Amino acid sequence: MADQTAATPKPRKVPRVLILGGGTVGLYTARRLRKQLGRRDAAIVVVDPRPYMTYAPFLPEVAAGSIDPRHVVAPHRFALPGIDSLQGKVSRIEHATRRVEITPEEGDPYWVTYDHLVVGLGAVARTLPIPGLAEVGVGFKNVEEAIALRNHVLSRIDLAASTWDPDLRRRMLTFCFIGGGFAGIEALAELEDMARDAVANYDTIAPEDLNFVLVEASPRILPEVSAELGGYTLDQLRTRNIDIHLSTFLTSCVDRHVVLSDGTEFDAETIVWTAGVKANPVLADSDLPLDELGRVRCTTTLQVADADGHVVDGAWAAGDCAAVPDLENPGKFCPPNAQHALRESKVLGTNLAAHLRSAPLHEYRHKNVGTVASLGMHKGVAQMFGRFKVRGLLAWFLHRTYHLYAMPTLNRKFRIASGWTATLLFRREVVALGTLHDPRAEFRAAAVPPDKAQEEPTDAADPEIEATTDQAADEG
Ligand SMILES: Cc1cc2nc3c(=O)[nH]c(=O)nc-3n(C[C@H](O)[C@H](O)[C@H](O)COP(=O)(O)OP(=O)(O)OC[C@H]3O[C@@H](n4cnc5c(N)ncnc54)[C@H](O)[C@@H]3O)c2cc1C
After folding, report:
1. 54 CA → ligand 1 middle, Å
2. Structural contact between residues 349 and 33, judged by C-beta atoms closer than 8 angstroms
3. Is residue 347 assigned to a domain?
């Protein structure tokens, strides 16, 4: 009798690609891979604690109320058809055994194995051990912070309008931003513009009462554009009465009392930290090769490589957490921005698919197309192809057009564009939904007997600065 088992073809093992982080790199790599590989060619899994990708370049406009927060996020379940999503934090990476530990918000950590790993864990705020900063500062890296900051600024204006105490009023109306790079300048300029719009609705607050302060450690702002355009932006901000301290450090902000290295001191209810980013710290707890800045070392084909340039089998990386050699600037690495992250991901996806088919890989090479920044409604600066400098309304228009084009999914593009149209017709919303920071407060007060009410803890550790995305949804 014939041996039946010998005749049965062995089922082919489908390789599993595990993508860490569902941000720009995670989303675009997964989409490119799925476009090139069917379900029988590869299983693709994306891990992220958030169920959505955030398009960060639009966060300043979210904070200013020009874009609905829901519209700058692309939900994974909608934007990643045919791809599995796991919600949880990557807590350990063991590439030697090809497994990753995932810690979900609820429940015990668990391990997931893989054949190929894509690291797109992005960056976190790079902070310094400044007294008071951890207690009172807020970052500007994600949509939750953008919503919280918007609500915070608007509610401070409401509070200032309701007090007769001149010191308290000045403290409420003082907003301090640390860091004059792109994110910091856009956040400052957009929020100042919004605050100016908001105070037009108050009889007791004049625009001159607003006190926006920028602190920057280097002698200039916007290092991403030419010195001339940086200088122009500086002049623009100064004509808007923004108090700018260059070559200055924040030395302390205990209890929201700001002390600067140039001797200036003031009280500020709002302290925003936008002084740079560093690679995701979870990488330090991995066996992947890292450079001195904690980024995963890569080749120009987006494969992970050791310090001698030897490729680590089955590991790929891109974006803010990766040190990718910049072929347009030999000896340097690609800067951490969406322009590179998005394009690197597409090459990474194509290369990983090619690798699985034993086809040749491509090198990543990208010449910067330019930089665009919004400085508030109808104001902006742009530098295109390294040479062409644009200012004012045209730069603002370029900023919106470029980022609308880069925003993932047609659905989101349409929603953002229709929101802008509504804002042009009806002006933007400048209302603070302050009570959302502790939505159970009123119910708790009603439900708890009066003698126990004082002992009851609140939901939010710092109710003024905490917010969730659900709250964002309500805000819209
Ligand atoms: C306010 C702001 C404005 C910006 N403006 C511009 C601009 O105008 N132009 C430009 O080119 N760039 C801009 N950038 C930079 C740009 O957004 C980033 O360079 C880009 O998003 C990097 O992509 P990434 O995939 O590497 O990281 P991200 O897009 O940040 O994605 C990282 C993902 O990893 C997830 N993650 C984090 N930790 C874990 C963990 N432990 N486990 C699992 N997942 C985790 C995060 O939730 C996130 O989804 C801006 C950034 C900010 C913050």
Report:
1. 7
2. yes
3. yes
Q: Take residue 123 and report the two structure tokens written for it.
A: 């960056």
Given the CA of residue 25, which atom of ligand 1 is nearest to it?
25
Task: Say if strands 89-94 and 99-103 run parallel, antiparallel, or are unpaired.
Answer: antiparallel
Nearest CA to ligand 1 atom 20: 338
Cα 185 from chain centre: 15
Tell which one of 126, 182, 340 to mutate to probe ligand 1, the residue whose CB is within 8 A of the most ligand atoms. Answer: 182
Cα–Cα distance, 380 to 193 (Å, whole number): 12
- Tell me how many domains the chain contains: 1
What is the structure's pLDDT at 437? 64
Residue bearing the CA closest to ligand 1, atom 5: 57
- Ligand 1 is surrounded, with C-beta below 6 A, by 20-25, 47-50, 53, 56-57, 59, 89-90, 120-122, 140-141, 182-183, 280, 282, 319-321, 336-339, 341
Instruction: Identify whether 380 is part of a domain.
Output: no
Residue ranges of the chain with per-residue pLDDT less than 70: 1-11, 434-437, 450, 452-476
Distance 279 CA to ligand 1 centre (A): 10
Enter the DSSP assignment of 308. Answer: T
- To the nearest whole percent, how much of the chain has pLDDT over 70? 91
What is the three-class DSSP state of 102? strand
**Domain around 284:** 14-49+88-125+278-356
Q: Give the Å distance between the CA of 22 and the centre of ligand 1.
A: 9
Q: Beta-strand (E) ranges in 318-413?
A: 322-323, 370-374, 380-384, 388-391
CATH code of residue 100: 3.50.50.60
Which stretches of 389-454 are DSSP H helices? 392-406, 410-426, 441-447
pTM: 0.90
For 256-291, the pLDDT digits (tens) are: 999 999 999 999 999 999 998 999 999 998 999 999
* Residues 379-384: contacts with CB under 8 Å, at least 24 apart: 379/189, 379/193, 379/236, 381/222, 381/225, 381/229, 381/232, 381/233, 381/236, 383/225, 383/226, 383/229
The answer to whether residue 318 is domain-embedded is yes
User: Is the residue at 397 inside a domain?
Assistant: no
CA of 26, closest atom in ligand 1? 25
C-alpha torsion sign, points 7, 43, 103, 303? positive
Rounded alpha-carbon distances, angstroms, from residue 453 to 437, 445, 448, 450: 18, 7, 6, 5
State which amino acid sits at residue 197: D
Count of helices and strands (H, E) across the chain: 14, 26
Phi-psi region of 165 (alpha: psi -120 to 50; beta: other; left: phi over 0): beta
Q: What is the pLDDT of residue 471?
A: 40
